[in-house]
């Protein structure tokens, strides 16, 4: 991994954790100091972030974390519906028994106890990522995985997690169960449909947060 790659990943981590938020201004000096490296790789990383649409440049050449309007958030989730639906469809076709077993274990970890989820919203978000990563892996399509990873970086611009919305964690468990049931049964069309519905419910929760 080059220094520019390290700088890129370092900035992404700060976006993911919320240390850097939409609208925050960025300077090469400050980022370089925070990462403990020279300005050259940081400059390369920032240029890459600009090209990826995660950082925007104002008329005065000021750099800032991109602000997403409501319409852009909807567009992100529309693309996520397409990718997650395709991943579920392909997983229903290609998933091995071991991959299905792994998904079943992940799902079981988030099962509500006495009607309640035992994990915090942030912990649920991490388990949710593991579950969706498992479906992507089971799709056995490297290009779909690459596109999904790029989209995820854009989703990191959104503050907080939808699992902070009341009832979302419990609902997501049921939605995940339907997706996994279809994948395990090898039902490609149902797997895609319930995966798309799951992302639609996630968008509804996100828009509730932003309203």
Characterise this structure:
- With 211 residues, this protein is mainly alpha-helical.
- The protein has 2 domains: 3-65, Arc Repressor Mutant, subunit A (Orthogonal Bundle); 70-210, Up-down Bundle (Four Helix Bundle (Hemerythrin (Met), subunit A)), CATH 1.20.120.
- Helices cover 70% and strands 4% of the residues.
- Strands 1-3-2 form a 3-stranded antiparallel sheet.
- The longest helix is centred in the middle third of the chain and has 25 residues, at 70-94.
- It is globular.
Provide tags for this entry.
single chain, Four Helix Bundle (Hemerythrin (Met), subunit A), 3-stranded antiparallel sheet, 211 residues, Arc Repressor Mutant, subunit A, 2 domains, mainly alpha
The main pleated sheet reads as: 3 strands, antiparallel
Low confidence ranges: none
Report the sheet-strand fraction.
under 5%
Q: Roughly what is the average pLDDT, rounded to an integer?
A: 91
Overall structural class, as computed from helix and strand content, comes to mainly alpha
> Shape from CA axes?
globular
Q: What is the CATH class name of the largest domain?
A: Mainly Alpha
H/E order of the elements? HEHHEEHHHHHH
The total domain count is 2
Provide the CATH topology of the largest domain: Four Helix Bundle (Hemerythrin (Met), subunit A)
The percentage helix is 55-70%
Could you give the count of β-strands? 3
Q: Note the total helix count.
A: 9
Gyration radius (Cα, Å) is: 19 Å
The assigned CATH architecture of the largest domain is Up-down Bundle
- Oligomer, anyone? single chain
């Amino acid at each position: 991994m080059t220094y520019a790659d390290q700088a890129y990943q370092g900035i992404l981590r700060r976006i993911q954790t919320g240390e850097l938020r939409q609208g925050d201004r960025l300077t090469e000096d400050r980022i370089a100091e925070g990462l403990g490296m020279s300005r050259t790789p940081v400059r390369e990383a920032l240029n890459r972030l600009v090209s990826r649409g995660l950082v925007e440049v104002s008329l005065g050449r000021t750099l800032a974390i991109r602000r997403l309007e409501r319409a852009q958030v909807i567009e992100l989730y529309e693309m996520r519906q397409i990718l997650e639906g395709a991943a579920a469809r392909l997983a229903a076709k290609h998933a091995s028994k071991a991959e299905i077993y792994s998904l079943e274990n992940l799902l079981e970890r988030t099962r509500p106890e006495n009607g309640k989820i035992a994990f915090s919203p942030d912990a649920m978000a991490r388990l949710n990522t593991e579950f969706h990563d498992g479906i992507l892996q089971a799709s056995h399509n490297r290009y779909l995985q690459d596109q999904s990873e790029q989209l995820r970086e854009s989703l990191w611009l959104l503050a907080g997690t939808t699992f902070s919305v009341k009832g979302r964690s419990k609902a997501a468990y049921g939605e995940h169960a339907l997706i996994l049931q279809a994948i395990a049964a090898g039902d490609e069309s149902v797997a895609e449909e319930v995966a798309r519905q799951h992302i639609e419910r996630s968008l509804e929760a996100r828009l509730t947060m932003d309203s």
